[in-house]
């Protein structure tokens, strides 16, 4: 049986942008009760499945996509991202967003989400600005190069092992839960999302489809070995904007 879903408009730069974001928030609820971390991923792809343009996902985005990006951060306890993606995309420490201040306070959340960087190699410049924030955490594995580990910790970075030969996402989530951060927003890149999917820990995928075709051999939003069984998802909603972008929310089928 086929169902027709009416698209809802996403706007950005509206006269009352705060009100617009709060109205959009009703489309992206976290579960009311969390007895374990809930993992939501936010990714962007072209119509033909490319996850970036010239190595950066930002080349696929638009104003509406940036509004969704801001919204999802405003709802999350922690932003989890691969260190390489964070460096390539120019990430900085998430900041307090007044549009969500009251909502976060009511839920007992900190003013801004924590930044968690995932890195097996610890190839991170010790002077990378977010490392100076005591809330930032680098999640790695015990086999990571000791010299790079010391370079980061000597500059005050918090480095935590979540695996031996590689970072295990399950252990990452255990650590975040111990910190009181159950609302997890994974912002990629494709290798990190692949690790989440491989461990069957993805609860929800928020996917922006850019109205573009990239072609070439650009990676998809998930980079991982083929799964032994398909990971089944079901559509939660479909939104659109005047620029032709489509925003879908997919939830775990079981």
UniProtKB/TrEMBL annotation:
Xref: InterPro entries: DHFR-like_dom_sf, RibDG_C, Riboflavin_Biosynth_HTPR
Signal peptide range in chain numbering: none
Listed pathway(s): Cofactor biosynthesis; riboflavin biosynthesis
Name recorded for this polypeptide: Pyrimidine reductase family protein
Family annotation (Pfam families): RibD_C (PF01872)
Domain of life: Bacteria
Keywords, ordered alphabetically: NADP, Oxidoreductase
Species of origin: Gordonia oryzae
Record domain Bacterial bifunctional deaminase-reductase C-terminal: where: 37-245
Lineage, uppermost ranks: Bacteria, Bacillati, Actinomycetota, Actinomycetes, Mycobacteriales
GO biological process assignments: riboflavin biosynthetic process
GO molecular function terms noted in the UniProt entry: 5-amino-6-(5-phosphoribosylamino)uracil reductase activity
């Amino acid at each position: 049986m086929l169902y027709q879903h009416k698209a809802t408009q996403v706007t950005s730069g509206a006269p009352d942008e705060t009100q617009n974001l709060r109205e959009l928030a009703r489309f992206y609820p976290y579960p009311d009760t969390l007895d374990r971390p809930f993992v939501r991923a936010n990714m962007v792809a072209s119509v033909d499945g490319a996850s970036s343009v010239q190595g950066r996902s930002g080349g696929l985005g638009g104003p509406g996509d940036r509004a969704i990006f801001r919204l999802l951060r405003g709802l999350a306890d922690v932003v989890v991202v691969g260190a390489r993606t964070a460096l390539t995309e120019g990430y900085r420490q998430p900041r307090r967003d007044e549009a969500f201040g009251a909502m976060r306070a009511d839920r007992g959340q900190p003013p801004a989400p924590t930044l968690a960087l995932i890195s097996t190699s610890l190839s991170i410049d010790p002077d990378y600005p977010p490392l100076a924030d005591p809330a930032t955490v680098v999640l790695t594995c015990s086999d990571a190069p000791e010299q790079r580990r010391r370079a980061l910790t000597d500059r005050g970075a918090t480095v935590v092992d979540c695996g031996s030969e590689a970072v295990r996402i399950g252990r990452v989530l255990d650590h975040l839960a111990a910190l009181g951060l159950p609302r997890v927003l994974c912002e990629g890149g494709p290798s990190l999302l692949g690790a989440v999917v491989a461990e069957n820990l993805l609860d929800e995928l928020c996917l922006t489809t850019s109205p573009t075709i990239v072609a070439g051999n650009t990676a998809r939003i998930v980079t991982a070995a083929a799964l032994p069984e398909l990971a089944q998802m079901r559509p939660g909603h479909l939104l659109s904007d005047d620029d032709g972008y489509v925003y879908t929310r997919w939830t775990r089928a079981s």
